[in-house]
């Protein structure tokens, strides 16, 4: 079984520091079921690749009574796919050989260990019970670009059709520790099997390695059940604890941060100018069906309802509480029937493909992307520009260059404590051009707010069209 990890981060050889493995010295590790070998097929400053080659001894497994059992009897213990495919054996090897890297620690490069990097993982043979659609459902919400090549059951007998085995490549801009952790958890999930007894300690492993991503994953239920080998009591305990972890931040905390940002921008009436600018773009597009992604408490929705042009308005947000506030402020329960038919509110995440977003001619995304971590930003891009694919998208984000004009904002800090980044105009334009190249859109840029000759406007808007 072969797994390779590659990066083009400069210098790419820093991958050795993150993995605690010298690129110039192959290493081998003895495991209870065989041996793991770590070596570097290439190691240059431009590109470095590390390989984890796993040798599983099927005879040794039977002798240790760890081999597969059940249907097939004794023969299946010796003749099986375990030495050749990614499975829980590979997860154990990852934890054994790359333990420090999985934890995100690096004595020589601590800052780099916390930094998202361009990474590519390639699994030579991966069993996928559920096929390619399930494979994509697991990895794409985490921000990965998935390439899968399915293998024939027997290349010499085409009529037998395809097997459940794939060669899989995963690409993402993410932390190495996150990539290793995702592989550790999801490989046994795809295989839907484990080579060892699953007990209470596996719940702790799942919660530890799933911290920060599993609770919000759309397939968390099936991930949990498969990881715990369908043991109902363990899966129920894990899901209950995940539900607790997923509990949103208290509303007062979110409101306090939002109020801080609003107070900072209030002198400019910036929020009102953003809403007016977006409404103008949407009207100009000629669209009648419009979706506001990350609609929050419904301020744009109220403005859209005033325009008769918009006959079908959808507001979507990940926060139940925000949608409840939007419902109250829009007075939906007492709205005249004809008006009420024009608008609906939808609970959903911008991270996951949603068939309910299809068919809308235009979309607005106001001050949303800066709240997303880079890996989640990549998933959002595919949800909006590849899956929903509206004709027009009006998207706004802060202009980091303008922050020096806010006297009360300390240098080097963001306008909102939940912002993951704030882009300069050049950075925003570069990102937007990348969207156009990947998804077939064109883009134009509009300033929002007072235009400063040196640092531009406080808000920048991109209008995408196809």
UniProtKB/TrEMBL annotation:
Q: Which GO terms describe its biological process?
A: regulatory ncRNA-mediated gene silencing; RNA methylation
Q: What catalytic activity does the UniProt entry give for this protein? A: small RNA 3'-end nucleotide + S-adenosyl-L-methionine = small RNA 3'-end 2'-O-methylnucleotide + S-adenosyl-L-homocysteine + H(+)
Location of the Methyltransferase type domain? 291-383
Q: What is its EC number?
A: 2.1.1.386
Query: Per UniProt, which keywords does this protein have?
Result: Magnesium, Metal-binding, Methyltransferase, RNA-binding, RNA-mediated gene silencing, S-adenosyl-L-methionine, Transferase
- List the transmembrane segments: none
The answer, when asked if Metal-binding is one of the entry's keywords, is yes
Q: Where is this region: Disordered?
A: 239-263
Keyword rRNA processing (UniProt): no
* Occurrences of domain Hen1 N-terminal (ranges): 1-242
GO MF annotation: an example: small RNA 2'-O-methyltransferase activity
Q: Which Pfam families match?
A: Hen1_L, Methyltransf_12
The entry's family comment says: Belongs to the methyltransferase superfamily. HEN1 family.
Task: Provide the protein name.
Answer: Small RNA 2'-O-methyltransferase
């Amino acid at each position: 079984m072969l797994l390779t990890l590659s990066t083009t981060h400069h210098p790419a050889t820093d991958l050795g520091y993150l993995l605690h493995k010298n690129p110039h010295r192959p290493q081998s590790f003895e495991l209870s079921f065989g041996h793991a070998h770590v070596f570097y097929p290439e190691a240059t400053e431009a590109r470095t690749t590390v390989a984890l080659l796993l040798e599983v001894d099927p005879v040794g497994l039977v002798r240790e009574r760890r081999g597969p059992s059940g249907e097939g009897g004794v023969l299946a213990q010796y003749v099986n796919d375990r030495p050749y495919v990614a499975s829980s054996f590979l997860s154990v090897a990852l934890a054994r050989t790359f333990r420090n890297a999985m934890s995100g620690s690096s004595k020589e490069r601590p800052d780099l260990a916390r930094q998202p990097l361009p990474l590519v993982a390639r699994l030579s043979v991966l069993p996928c019970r559920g096929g390619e659609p399930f494979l994509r459902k697991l990895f794409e919400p985490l921000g990965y670009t998935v390439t899968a090549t399915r293998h024939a059951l027997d290349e010499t007998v085409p009529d037998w059709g395809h097997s459940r085995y794939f060669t899989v490549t995963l690409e993402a801009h993410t932390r190495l520790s996150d990539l290793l952790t995702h592989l550790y958890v999801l490989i046994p999930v795809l295989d839907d099997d484990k080579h060892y007894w699953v007990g209470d300690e596996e719940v702790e492993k799942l919660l530890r390695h799933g911290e920060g991503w599993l609770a919000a994953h759309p397939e968390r239920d099936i991930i949990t059940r498969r990881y715990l080998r369908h043991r109902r009591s363990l899966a129920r305990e894990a899901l209950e604890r995940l539900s607790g972890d997923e509990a949103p931040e208290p509303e007062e905390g979110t409101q306090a941060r939002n109020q801080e940002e609003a107070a900072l921008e209030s002198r400019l009436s910036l929020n009102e100018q953003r809403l007016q600018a977006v409404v103008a773009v949407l009207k100009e597009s000629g669209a009648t069906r419009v979706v506001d992604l990350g609609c929050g408490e419904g301020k744009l929705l109220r403005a859209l309802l005033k325009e008769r042009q918009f006959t079908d308005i959808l507001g979507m947000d990940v926060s139940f509480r925000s949608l409840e506030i939007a419902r109250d402020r829009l007075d939906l329960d007492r709205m005249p029937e004809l008006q009420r038919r024009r608008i609906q509110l939808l609970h959903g995440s911008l991270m996951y493909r949603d068939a309910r977003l299809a068919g809308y001619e235009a979309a607005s995304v106001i001050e949303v992307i800066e709240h997303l971590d880079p890996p989640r930003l990549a998933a959002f891009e595919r949800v909006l520009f590849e899956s929903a694919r509206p004709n027009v998208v009006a998207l706004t984000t802060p202009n980091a260059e303008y922050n020096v004009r806010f006297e009360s904002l300390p240098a080097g800090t963001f306008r909102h404590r939940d912002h993951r980044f704030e882009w300069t105009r050049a950075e925003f334009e570069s990102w937007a051009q990348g969207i156009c190249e990947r998804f077939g859109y064109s883009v134009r840029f509009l300033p929002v707010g007072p235009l400063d000759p040196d640092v531009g406007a406080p808000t920048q808007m991109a209008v995408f069209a196809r």
